[in-house]
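User: Could you check the structure of this?
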Amino acid sequence: MKTYVGKRLFDIFLAGIGFVLLLPVFIIIIFIIYFDSGFPIIYSQFRIGLYGKKFKLYKFRSMVVGAHEQRSVIVQKYNLGTNNFRFIADPRVTRVGKILRRWNLDELLQLINILQGDMTFVGPRPLEEHWCENNNYKIMINELRPGLTGYYQLYSHCTNRSDEFMRIKLVQKYWHEISFLTDLKIIFKTLKVVFYQEF
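Assistant: Sure, the predicted structure tokens are below.
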């Protein structure tokens, strides 16, 4: 199985340093979210990790309170399918949420998931439960820990039904290429995308 002790040690080291250095940023984000739209500050959702383990994925809240309950209304209004729900102008995203999402700041709390061992820095995007019914995701569930960034997170910017096909292909690509050097390349590419907005 393609898991390495070195990868886990790297995760703990980098996530620990990152959490300490970013703590002032976290505090600022907390206050900004509170004054913009109140509590809760943190949004959590169950995802499926390695070996099918269910875990809570943490994010800073970037949508209005009760956004999940509005999902069906938005799907009908914009004539969206369940597998291509993502779209650019989601009306549920708050003013602050737009900024957080643009710079991926809402996902910084996943450093906690990395420290807990539920996630890694580089790996496939965490799966929602309904995706696990697809046998094509067995590699993700049995071989790979979900990642904060990865090939899919970097290159999947479409909002159509090819998302699922793309995800599977990019997961397989990472599984075949997995190495410490590959992880470093993806991390540096992610930083470049975030800072220069090369979407």
